[in-house]
Amino acid sequence: KMEEFLNFMQLKTSLKEAVLLDYYTAGFCWAKEMNFSVIQLSGFMDLLNFALENLSDKHITLGDNLKELGRAMAGIGETDSEERGDLTLFSIEQAKAIIDYLVTSLFKHYKAYEYLFHGRREEPVISNE
Questions:
Q1: Is the Cβ–Cβ distance between 116 and 97 less than 8 Å?
Q2: Coiled-coil region(s) at which residues (predicted)?
Q3: N or C: which end of the chain has fewer CB within 10 A?
């Protein structure tokens, strides 16, 4: 289902698509294990996508991506601030768990993801044989 949602057409031959499918599926499963509500699950998946797009599309460094994540998560646990965005739906404990998850799943492997998105790779030549 995730493959269809992400509209991956070359999953069997694209390392990039396979890695991204694994990243999003693992994140989704983790969020389900955390018993996030549907709205929280959506917000969490947005955070995963936000951090990954910062790396893949914007070429943001690890330090800057961590700062962006901090800005995106600012206000979690506050109830009287609407301008903070939809992430106020997470408790402080959930926010800590989310940060731990992002550190473990993405930020510890940042160089590998940078290479996946920005490293030069030669196209393999595959014969009919």
A1: no
A2: none
A3: C
